[in-house]
């Protein structure tokens, strides 16, 4: 039986809000925003009920929803710098205020200043680099009908020229420590309107505005398309590496395994600087005139596996003219290609860089990428200062030379493809695994990416023994080399979904590393 509260919340959220307000004890109205959050989140706590809420996305942009519709918007917080907005919690007429509930009569009427409250305002955008399979899993399959949408404030989206939704969010609860974090992904449920942009500048601009009722965390593990896995981790890992190698890397199994280890890495400890290792595939051929595409097939493969994935095709024009880091101009935070959510993998191509001069902007952009790779923090530029925000981004660089021309990565793997390999296939030319196997690949990647693995005493002793023995023949080995070796072994263990690193996996990881070093020679 469908709840009447559910039906009313879906069809007329404003009426539901007003009725809730009118049912409250006047003495407790100071806590009304908290009551609203609890009431609506409880109505939609069931997953089936939650999925009934219309989605705000590229298939269903703001123009396709009627005014004051209830919608859910999965988005990344792009800008938290706008100041709070004052609103009347109770209108002069005695009716509910906030959530866009006011008329011109209310604005012009005499007000009781004790009814003024603060409303937090932030700007949010469609999740940058979100893969199509994730959108379809969470929002339904894309329709053939495309509704035209001109993004408002496109400079606030990290990926220039890509279609997206930008929305002003208003929060009426006292967020405190629960305030949305910069670049965090959440699903926001609220009442959609079109209102003036809240800004301290003289700009007059109407923008899509979502009056937030409640939020939900974004959890990759609830993706419906993943399901349960009927295959063993070892089998799935082996087939996944083989598929990546055959379809995107000319049969190079070792390169494919290094790619897999890189994309499942994450920041393990900021205090101990245990950051995800970055990878360069060197000797990677540039596309030729006869190539089917200018984009490496690896990009398509990774977008089929990862929830969020971004390609950064370096060129002198891009480096010299596009700021890679967010910059605040006239109280407005302009985005840049590096403003991405945690867990995003970035593939950088260098084939588009031709002879020419790298100006100051280009040098700063390269330094910014290197800084994120090394320290996993991104410095935002404000008029009189810089402020760094933590990141958790994985990097793969494709370079035609012996190493990257611009960036120093933790690992360099000389690429060895078979002859006549097509590394620039179109998506239609890729051989996809059966749906259940592709779902198993995705599940393995996400489970490895979010998993934890311990190093037991026996394996730890073996690692120390091996390091001591190797130091006898190679005096240049450092603690950093040991740390990277352990990190690589941990990542390999995670791809096998191990809870504790085994000696067998340690040996297998060492063998992979030895083959990599042999290629360097």
What sequence of helices (H) and strands (E) makes up the elements?
A: HHHHEEHEHEEEHHEHEHEEEHEEEEHHHH
**Strand composition percent:** 15-25%
Mean pLDDT rating: 92
Biggest beta sheet attributes: 5 strands, mixed, barrel
The value of Rg in angstroms is 26 Å
The CATH architecture term of the largest domain is: 3-Layer(aba) Sandwich
Distance between the termini: 70 Å
Oligomer: single chain
Helix segment tally: 15
CATH class of the largest domain reads: Alpha Beta
Level of helix content?
Answer: 25-40%
Uncertain segments of ≥5 residues (pLDDT<50)? none
What descriptive keywords fit this protein?
2 domains; alpha/beta; single chain; 19% strand; 5-stranded parallel sheet; 15 strands; 5-stranded mixed barrel; 15 helices; OB fold (Dihydrolipoamide Acetyltransferase, E2P); 521 residues; Rossmann fold
């Amino acid at each position: 039986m469908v709840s009447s509260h559910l039906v009313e919340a879906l069809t007329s959220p404003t009426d539901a809000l007003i009725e809730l307000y009118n049912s409250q004890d006047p003495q407790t109205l100071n806590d009304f925003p908290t009551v609203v959050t609890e009431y609506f989140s409880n109505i939609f706590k069931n997953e089936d009920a939650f999925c009934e809420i219309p989605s705000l996305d590229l298939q269903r942009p703001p123009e396709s929803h009627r005014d004051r519709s209830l919608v859910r918007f999965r988005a990344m917080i792009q800008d938290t710098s706008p100041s709070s907005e004052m609103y009347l919690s109770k209108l002069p007429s005695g009716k509910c205020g906030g959530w866009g509930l006011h008329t011109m009569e209310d604005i012009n009427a005499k007000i009781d200043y004790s009814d003024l409250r603060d409303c937090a305002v932030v700007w949010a955008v469609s999740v940058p680099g979100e893969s199509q399979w994730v959108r379809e899993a969470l929002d339904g399959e894309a329709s053939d009908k495309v509704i035209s949408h001109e993004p408002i404030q496109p400079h606030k989206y990290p990926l220039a020229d890509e279609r997206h939704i930008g929305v002003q969010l208003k929060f009426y609860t006292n967020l405190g420590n629960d305030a949305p974090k910069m670049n965090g992904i959440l699903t926001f449920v609220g009442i959609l309107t079109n209102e003036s942009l809240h800004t301290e500048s003289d700009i007059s601009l109407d923008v899509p505005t979502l009056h937030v009722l409640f939020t939900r965390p974004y959890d990759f593990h609830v993706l419906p398309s993943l399901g349960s896995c009927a295959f063993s981790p070892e089998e799935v890992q082996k087939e996944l590496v083989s598929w990546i190698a055959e379809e995107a890397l000319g049969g190079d199994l070792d390169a494919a395994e290094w790619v897999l280890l890189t994309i499942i890495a994450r920041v393990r400890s900021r205090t101990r600087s245990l950051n995800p290792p970055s990878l360069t595939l060197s000797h990677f051929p540039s596309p030729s005139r006869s190539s089917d595409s200018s984009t490496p097939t690896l990009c398509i493969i990774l977008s089929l596996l990862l929830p969020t994935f971004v390609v950064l095709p370096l060129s002198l024009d891009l480096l010299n003219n596009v700021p890679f880091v967010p910059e605040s101009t006239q109280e407005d935070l302009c985005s840049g290609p590096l403003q991405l959510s945690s867990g995003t993998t970035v593939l950088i191509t260098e084939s588009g860089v031709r002879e020419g001069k790298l100006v100051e902007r280009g040098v700063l952009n390269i330094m910014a990428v290197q800084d994120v790779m090394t320290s996993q923090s991104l410095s935002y530029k404000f008029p009189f200062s810089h402020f760094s925000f933590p990141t958790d981004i994985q990097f793969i660089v494709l370079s035609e030379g012996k190493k990257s021309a611009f960036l120093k990565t933790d690992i360099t793997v000389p690429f060895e493809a078979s002859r006549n390999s097509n590394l620039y296939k179109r998506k239609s030319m890729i051989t996809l695994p059966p749906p259940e196997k592709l779902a198993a690949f995705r599940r393995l990647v996400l489970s490895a990416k979010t998993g934890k693995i311990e190093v037991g005493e026996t394996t730890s002793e073996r690692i120390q023994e091996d390091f001591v023995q190797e130091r006898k023949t190679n005096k240049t080995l450092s603690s950093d080399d040991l740390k990277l070796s352990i990190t690589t072994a941990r990542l390999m263990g995670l791809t096998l979904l191990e809870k504790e690193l085994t000696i067998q996996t340690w040996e297998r990881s060492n063998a992979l590393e030895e083959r990599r070093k042999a290629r360097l020679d």
